[in-house]
């Protein structure tokens, strides 16, 4: 039998298969191989003794370690246009990490009833990223986001107060998330350990409830090596092979086609600024690692 793991707690796995939900154990062989099944994994399992046991983990299309989640298709970054103000550096870090991991990034700007998200949206649309603008008070825009989630495994992230639960409520009233108190409702208190869990959507697909995402700390997360960073800013691709120096870092060199494109208004300044900041951070990490080994 084949299914997808929707919950993984203490060596016990909940597997959603076409004919029902199964509680499974994992075979010892996974421990020896040092891979363990995680939420989002597609697995083969079979009846064994009184219960069921996972036999095989199918190849993963993507893998996140913190929070542990396999086969994520979409990472949806929710940012409000005001209260709290959007943080383009954080947004660009998330997007780059998603690109690096082979997960499609999607951006949702909320609170467009208070302030237009058009200018911000254009920055990301011009980079070829899917952008949605939502007014969660009227629910406008949520149907488009919902349509995109169909048949996909998605996770939502964004700072506290940006309107994630409002948006999720507009799309899936059956989830009954308490706006403004989602933390309490889902037991996100300091003393509760929470686990990743997948919710099945009526139209097909899953949404991951991920404790690690709302307070997503990118520094502790994955730092992208500086050589790989430009490749995670998709709109740089048209320029990076036109620089004067083949080893151009695209941060300050003369004859850098990326910098020329920024000056010409072809690449948004804020995206470039984020790139330079992340490049500096990546550089420090490498030197630090080097000194310590
Ligand atoms: N005007 C306006 N207010 C919104 C919108 N979206 C959310 N809000 C309000 O912003 C506040 C925070 O919204 P939530 O949906 O709880 O935000 P959240 O991202 O889930 O926050 P956490 O649970 O802390 O992670 C609430 O008071 C919402 O009513 C919007 O599009 N427009
Ligand atoms: Zn360059």
Automatic annotation (TrEMBL):
GTP binds at residues 110-113, 158-166. Keywords: Cytoplasm, GTP-binding, Hydrolase, Metal-binding, Nucleotide-binding, Ribosome biogenesis, RNA-binding, rRNA-binding, Zinc. Transmembrane segments: none annotated. PROSITE patterns: ENGC_GTPASE, G_CP. Its EC number is 3.6.1.-. GO terms for cellular component: cytoplasm. Gene3D superfamilies: Nucleic acid-binding proteins, P-loop containing nucleotide triphosphate hydrolases, Probable gtpase engc, domain 3. InterPro entries: G_CP_dom, NA-bd_OB-fold, P-loop_NTPase, Ribosome_biogen_GTPase_RsgA, RsgA_GTPase_dom, RsgA_N. One of its GO terms (biological process) is ribosomal small subunit biogenesis. Binds 1 zinc ion per subunit. Coiled coil: none annotated. Residues 61-216 form the CP-type G domain. The keyword Repeat does not apply. It comes from the Bacteria. Zn(2+) binds at residues 243, 248, 250, 256. One of its GO terms (molecular function) is GTP binding. It is found in: Cytoplasm. The keyword rRNA-binding applies. It is an enzyme of class 3 (hydrolase). One of several proteins that assist in the late maturation steps of the functional core of the 30S ribosomal subunit. Helps release RbfA from mature subunits. May play a role in the assembly of ribosomal proteins into the subunit. Circularly permuted GTPase that catalyzes slow GTP hydrolysis, GTPase activity is stimulated by the 30S ribosomal subunit. Monomer. Associates with 30S ribosomal subunit, binds 16S rRNA. This is Small ribosomal subunit biogenesis GTPase RsgA. The lineage of its organism: Bacteria, Bacillati, Bacillota, Clostridia, Eubacteriales. The gene is rsgA.
């Amino acid at each position: 039998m084949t299914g997808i793991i929707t919950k993984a707690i203490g060596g016990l796995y909940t597997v959603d298969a076409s004919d029902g939900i199964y509680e499974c154990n994992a075979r010892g062989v996974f421990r020896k191989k040092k891979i363990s099944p995680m939420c989002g994994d597609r697995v083969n399992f079979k009846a064994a003794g009184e219960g069921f046991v996972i036999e095989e983990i199918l190849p993963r299309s993507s893998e996140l370690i913190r929070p542990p989640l396999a086969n994520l298709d979409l990472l949806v970054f929710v940012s409000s246009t005001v209260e709290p103000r959007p943080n383009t550096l954080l947004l660009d870090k998330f997007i780059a990490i998603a690109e690096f991991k082979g997960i499609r990034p999607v951006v949702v700007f909320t609170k467009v009833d208070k302030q237009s998200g058009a200018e911000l949206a254009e920055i990301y649309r011009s980079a070829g990223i899917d952008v949605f603008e939502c007014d969660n008070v009227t629910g406008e825009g949520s149907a488009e986001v919902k349509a995109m989630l169909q048949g996909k495994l998605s996770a939502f992230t964004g700072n506290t107060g940006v309107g994630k639960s409002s948006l999720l409520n507009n799309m899936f009233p059956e989830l009954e998330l308490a706006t403004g108190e989602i933390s309490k409702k889902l037991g996100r208190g300091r003393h509760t350990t929470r686990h990743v869990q997948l919710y099945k959507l009526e139209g097909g697909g899953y949404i991951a409830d991920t404790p690690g995402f709302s307070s997503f700390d990118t520094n502790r997360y994955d730092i992208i090596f500086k050589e790989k960073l430009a490749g995670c800013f998709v709109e740089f691709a048209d320029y990076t092979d036109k620089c004067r120096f083949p080893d151009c870092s695209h941060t300050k060199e003369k004859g850098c086609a990326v910098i020329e494109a920024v000056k010409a208004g072809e690449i948004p300044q804020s995206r470039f600024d984020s790139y330079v900041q992340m490049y500096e951070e990546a550089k420090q990490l490498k030197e630090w690692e080097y000194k310590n080994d």
